[in-house]
Amino acid sequence: MNPPYQTFELSDALTREQIEHFETFGFLHFRNFIDAARVQALIDASIEVQRRWVADGVDKVNGVPIKYGKDLDGSPLVQRFAFANLHHPELARFLDEPRFKVLFPLIGSADTRIGHHEKDGMVLNHYVHAPGSAYSRLGWHTDGLRDIFLGTRLNPLLNVGVHLSNLGPEHGGLRLLPGTHRQGLWKMLFRKRYFLDHDTDPDEIAIVPKAGDLTVHDGRLWHRVAQSTVSGEASRRRVIYIPVISGKYAPKTDKSPTPLYQRFASITNK
Question: Would you tell me which of 119, 154, 156, 225 could form a disulfide with 107, CB atoms 3.0–4.6 Å apart?
Fold first, then answer.
């Protein structure tokens, strides 16, 4: 399934075609989910949160490490925000966007919900390919690994991305292995070396969004974040990820420990 792949528009209900596409390939890409003004408002909110976290020396939120790097001018840069929705009203309001619920049938469970206080909450990734950047790529992995590491049942999970930057393939970004959400547990665990493998896969596709687009992929799908082949300001990209989950309610607090898989990921991705 080579690019260009099929994209859709999100309305008040998923179509049969969209559901079948997700069941077959494990992902969907919706154009124009939010407009340019909302994109900028979300970016501005993240900058405000960054300013406070840098000033206060915040290193974890609810046990989840905050990943820092350096911006192009050498100033501190938050490159991975966890639970960002708990730290700015604009981000909190966005997490309550009712159109996210249109995606719930892709899980099909009565207890499907958005993880306001679960998993890592709203995650905002800010990638820059420049000297001092600590977060310019992310190795192959599946999102279901966290449940296995925590010794819990592998529950259905959707990872919903709202893209805040215009990207081409040269900017790196999300790479998916379509159909791998239907693999068995063995391949989910051992198809690749989690976070260590970064190599291009001949079967991968590059997600190429515009600012304001929404993507959703199954938590069992193998994916990575490729490094930009351009550097400097042209490499800057931001994306929000929202967990749509089911299963036993498992909120995190400021007393929550740092999961082992996050400690591992933090030392294997530069």
Answer: 156
154, part of any domain: yes
CATH of the domain at 259: 2.60.120.620
Backbone phi, psi, residue 78, to 5°: -80, 120
Residue 264 DSSP SS3: helix
DSSP letter for each residue of 250-261 = ----TTPPPPHH
Residues 6 or more apart from 264 whose CB is under 8 A from it? 194, 195
> Which residue shows structure tokens 């992995």?
141
Domain containing residue 152:
32-268
Question: What tens digit of pLDDT does each residue of 165-209 get?
Answer: 999 989 999 999 999 998 887 777 788 988 899 999 999 999 999
Confidence of residue 22 (pLDDT cuts 50, 70, 90): very high
Helix (H, G, I), strand (E, B) or coil at 103: helix
Distance of CA 229 to the CA centre of its chain: 20
Angle formed at CA 143 by CA 160 and CA 31, multiple of 5 degrees: 20
Asked if 83 and 120 touch (Cβ cutoff 8 Å), the reply is yes
